[in-house]
Amino acid sequence: MGRAQERASADRPAESLDGSGTALELLVHGVGGTTPEAMLDDPRTVRVTGDETAAVFRRCEDVDAESRPQDYQDKPVQEAYVWCNLTSGNSARALWLLLLPFMVVNLAHWMRPTTRGHSRTVRFYGLLVRLVGLTLTVLLVAAACEVALDLAAWQCAGTHACADRHSWLGFLSPEVSQDGWWSRPGRRLAVAAAVPTALTTLLWYLSRRTWSAYESQRPLSHEPEPDEDTGRTSLGRPGFWYGRRLVARLRAAHTAAGLLTVAAAVASSAARFDHRPGGPAVLDTLSLLLYAALAATAVVVLWVVCRRGRSENRLDQELDEHLVRRLPLAALALLLSAVVYAGWERPGWESSGRLAGGGTTFGGLALVQGLLVIALAVVARTLHRTHPDPRAAMRGLAGPAVAMLACALGGVMSGGVSQRVSDWLDGTGTSIAGPPVVLTWQSSVIPVLLLALLGLCALLGRGAWRLRRTELGEVRLDHPGEPEDTARTRAIATTRALATLTDRAPLLVAVTSATTLILGAGALVGAKFTEEAPAPAADHAHALVHGAAQTAQALGSWLIGFGFILFVTWGRRAYKDASARRTIGILWDVGTFWPRAAHPFAPPCYAERAVPDLSWRMATWTRATGGRLVISGHSQGSVLAAAAAWQLKPSVRKRVALLTYGSPLERLYGRWFPAHFGPAALSSLHHEVDCWRNLYRATDPIGGPIRLPGDCGPEVDRGPLKDPLAYGRTARHPLPAPILGHSDYQADPAFAEERERLLARLRPEVPAPRPDGD
């Protein structure tokens, strides 16, 4: 019966329904996901529209509600929008976490401070973030080249002791495979180039596949109305959720950059051998031509990245097909040319030491990233001063700080993989030279960074402990006349104190970013000093310093490897365990909420599917029935609800009421993304919808008040709600009431009261059904 009802409902267009006077409550769940049965509190539900990925569900008894409006005069028709499959899935989806640096740098693009005017400075801010993203792609591919080309093919396969321990490298080793065709240094590099090339191809494939599923989904479009003002937030612009053109351009540029990095790594040592005095003139000329072609293509890649940013004021349906296709193909042709060039027969060429250019590449990337982050901080500070927002995280410097974290994550991941592979290949620790010195020095700063973070966490914990002592008295005041339960009071006070740690996140990010920048600069200086004077003096003081440095480097190397394994394990568990997903899901869902504006290889933006779904549903309902719609969003669902409301026409938006609970709209999004969810944007949303009510608890670590200025605040916020609902055992709660925190807001009587209040506000003056052409 359910399948038949589903097909019947899907075949009936929304525009043909005649449910005038019927109210709709559209429920949107939050982080962690749920089922339509749980959302609608009914074991029998039917999908009325959507697919296996995201869909709208109803109770079976409500499928034909539009044909029976008299049965819904005193209650709304409830629909549940389930979008959890957009962000979760099987455990293999944990591999997306390997793209975390790309996601983090994409977040930095959206953390731009609030500003009025200064469009050129805003565009320059976006350009700097895109350049940081490009360096991360080069860094990841360079790390793959370091592992495959330098450590495996050049150093290990070229050393008899190392090649003997790894039989799979035997056909590449000149010691094991005497006069083997593949044992020449250039041909070994050509074979090893398949690994970073495959990585780049995989990133291109994943980006293109998700681009077709997400960025190519056309959102609800409309012509701007005379009274429409999109200046307070760009989330209401027609092209905000349609980044098809930009992502395609960036994908072509980043793919080409990755292939060019591989080509340069393959050709560098061969070119150095050919440039020696008395080298073959033909090969020397070919190397110059190849490097000129590589440089020219790299300039084109930079031009593509710098030339165009996001186009949000209109629905840009163009696609630069020639550029998207030809740029990666040109880079691939140069890579094949580099492989042929390196594989040429060169008598007397042997591999020794490290592959040429590795230290310069990683050191140069770290230097460029540091300079870009500093420039980004200057631009962000300039923008913040034009329109200061006291609630903005880190006084407008959140974007540069997060971009620094993205660079640090990229460095830790690339350095960690290189160190672990080097340790695995070199069992004795003496047969190969290992990764470049700069990567070793970057590993050595990890213990120092962890010590700084542990100290900061200790200070934050001390502050939470002091706040807990204050909350003990507040809990007793909230429940006067009830018998004292010390354990109960402590549990409530502890939960309240821990919930406030979310508001300390800016301090944690600021300290981490500043410490990383300083230690990174120190690592570059230390690496440079070590290369110039590798042998320390033999006196006791120098030996002590040298030993401490080696200990820090070894400890940092193992910490990186352990952290990388732990990171992947947690990610896999988050996709299999619902409780683990609720714990870390908010960070992931915040990151993938935003469109890919700075990096095309970042995980896909689920909101580019979810927001058009919601806006289409709200628009078709209001057009068919004349209005009366309450969109009810919990946690991240409240952010989707607000974004969808901004996409509606102002005339339609005025017929929508908004109910949010456990909402991070101001506490997280308003502080970290002030240009899009700042006070002006949230105030405009309050005035543009029919009514907005927000519920929150003091024990909720994610949700909080909207904090609108002036008289608007009490109109929106109700709270904080009581949590737990009962302190001790009562006639209504004979068993101990749980501390709910961020979950189960519907269990509070205030939820039903506020929903009824919104429906009652919508009941008077129900507008007549509007024509289809409206």
From TrEMBL:
Protein name stated in the entry: Lipase family protein
Chain segments annotated as transmembrane: 124-144, 189-206, 252-273, 285-306, 327-344, 364-384, 396-418, 438-460, 505-527, 547-571
Originating species: Streptomyces cylindrosporus
InterPro entries recorded: AB_hydrolase_fold
Domain of life from the UniProt record: Bacteria
Keywords, alphabetical: Membrane, Transmembrane, Transmembrane helix
